[in-house]
Amino acid sequence: MFSRKERLAERTGEFGIGRYEFLKQLIKEFAETSSYENKRQTLANLANFAYDPINYNFIKQLHLIDLFLAELSNEQEELIHFALAGICNLCAGNAHYTKTLEHHIKIKKL
């Protein structure tokens, strides 16, 4: 289900953490953890956030697609799966990410 800004503000509350900061924390957690299970869960969460268009600007600012693309080279199949899910979620509703992915594929072919 897609979110609206009003609904996010309502769910966050007066003293809660905003969506941008939450995504930033997830990316930081993914980068810093050495636990495979934590990486798996965090990447799965990030892929789920990529589904909702309200997150696209935050995801763009945080360069999350770069993380997804980097994980395609991972040796762990589950991490590749979640990275692909994140890329598919982004590309399904946003032409910017589709173009970014096309550009990345062209570079890989060179």
Description:
The termini are far apart. It is built from 7 helices and no strands. It has a single domain (5-109), classed as Leucine-rich Repeat Variant. The radius of gyration is 14 Å and the shape is globular. The protein has 110 residues and is an all-alpha fold. The protein has helices at 5-12, 19-32, 36-49, 56-61, 64-71, 77-93, 95-109.
**SS field, number of helical segments:** 7
Q: Unreliable stretches, pLDDT < 50, 5 or more residues?
A: none
Number of structural units classed as domains = 1
Cα radius of gyration in angstroms? 14 Å
Under the CATH scheme, the architecture is: Alpha Horseshoe
Beta-strand content bin: under 5%
Proportion of residues in helical segments? over 70%
The CATH superfamily bears the name Leucine-rich Repeat Variant
CATH topology: Leucine-rich Repeat Variant
SS-based class: mainly alpha
Helix and strand arrangement:
Blueprint: H1 5-12, H2 19-32, H3 36-49, H4 56-61, H5 64-71, H6 77-93, H7 95-109
Helix pairs in contact: 2-3, 3-6, 5-6, 6-7
Pick out its properties.
110 residues, Leucine-rich Repeat Variant, Armadillo repeat-containing protein 7 isoform X4, ARM-type_fold, ARMC7
Entry summary:
By secondary structure, the protein is mainly α.
